[in-house]
Amino acid sequence: MSIAEILIVDDEVEVCTFFNYYFQEIKQLPVHVDYSGELARKDFQQKKYDLALIDLKLPDTDGITLLKEIKALNPNCEVIIMTGYSTVKSAVEAMKFGAFDYIDKPFNDLGELDEIIDRVLQFIQSKQTYVQNEIKTITTNFGIVISENSPMKEILLLARKIASKKLGVLIEGETGTGKELAARYIHNNSPRSSHPFIAINCGALTESLLESELFGHEKGAFTGAISRRRGVFEIANYGTLLLDEIGDASPAIQLKLLRVLETGEFYRVGGETPLKSDVRILAASNKNLRQAVKDRLFREDLLYRLDVVDLKLPPLRKRVMDIEPLINYFIEKNLSDKQTQAVFTKEAISILQNYSWPGNIRELSNVVSRAMVLRVGSKMDEKCLPPYLLAREEKHFEKENNGNVVLSEDSPQIWTQHRLKTILEQDEVNLPEVIRMLEQQNNDIIHTIIMKALETTNNNQNKAAELLHINPRTLRYLKNEKIKR
Ligand SMILES: Nc1ncnc2c1ncn2[C@@H]1O[C@H](COP(=O)(O)OP(=O)(O)OP(=O)(O)O)[C@@H](O)[C@H]1O
Q1: What is the DSSP secondary structure assignment for residue 205, as one 8-state letter?
Q2: Is 295 buried (19+), middle (13-18) or exposed (0-12) by CB count in 10 A?
Q3: The total number of structural domains that make up the chain
Q4: Residue where one domain finishes, among candidates 281, 312, 343
Q5: In the record, which positions carry 4-aspartylphosphate (predicted)?
Q6: Model confidence over 91-144: pLDDT tens digits?
Q7: 159 and 297 share a domain?
Q8: Is 173 in the pocket of ligand 1 (CB under 6 A)?
């Protein structure tokens, strides 16, 4: 049974000694003891417990208050209240606040105690099995990999709940966090799953092309429109349409989209007959659309229609626990039948877990594929990782003791704040001069990176470009044109 540590909170030394023995020696489970509510609170904020046994009468607090606090911090932790004869009524009351059960002190009937403990342990185990099965299904059926403790779990649960409803859903997240994958997940869990799912990138096309892609066009509507063409609103009828990078849609397109969302009607470009389509619209964005509304770049009424449900996908650096399962998944995906095995060394995994992943899961997938090509035998060590992963400058995030991820001192954000402070401290700010200085600094940084990559690859421009995730033409341009010094 995989149970995290069990917490005993009681000021009676004999009770604590008994439970220490009971759980460690008889049940073979890890146990920790706190003699006050204060100590238990502290421990609870730092550790994950599956089970807590709490005395109703503590020197500094009462068990019910502590129970409520624990449930607020970790609703998954089961709590058993320990009570004397005089407080049984309060113990029953505790069950209304989520306690699993209560046990009477002193423990005269060990059989009864054993029965309650076995019951709660079984319950915890069945919850874990349920979650594990859910996660397995999500991976097998939808290709989405997450760990048991991932913040993605709640998000996907919500996504599945609202899948069957025709509510506007806005999926937000940095590039590569899985927004399209989440949209497909919603579609595949909906009654529309046997109809098309179409994703269209609103930032990749010019305004007129996007309009024609969305709504279609009539023959002769513009030069080159040699025949009538259906748009995705028609093609995706009864299905789902993902408007990706919706924040990049022009004001004119935003207005047209609002009209379709409000009336369900649209016109092909050059058309005069209104058309109807039963499409479920999902939108995705890696920009903050609320800020875009404030900056008057995005229509508030459209945002209001789109984000009835808002799914915020956390960046990979905020879900470090997902990195290892994702690595294993990508390794498996890359292995051909003839290949036996491939594993990262512990050191390599630690580097991967400490990197800030600006390109998120897409970047991780590329790094794993690259390592598998470069590996000798089955082991993949640091040498199989791109050099930029090994540079200290990339460690913009640090893990605190409690597992939270925070900005480290050398993160770009903190660096920018320092820079800004120095500029604003001057008596007079000459903005053109500031812009020139920042551009020069940018150029210096890019130049240094390119020269280092060329040095690493013995001046091989193709290899250097690959290393930097750009094409050789861009590398030549950046080296020769843009950053002549
Ligand atoms: N949890 C996950 N498990 C497995 N693969 C994932 C997961 N999340 C994302 N991916 C993979 O990472 C890649 C990027 O995902 P996706 O295209 O959905 O991201 P996105 O947020 O829509 O990116 P962009 O904003 O750049 O369009 C895809 O190949 C996708 O299959």
Answers
A1: S
A2: exposed
A3: 4
A4: 312
A5: 55
A6: 778 888 889 998 888 887 888 889 999 999 999 999 888 888 888 889 889 999
A7: yes
A8: yes
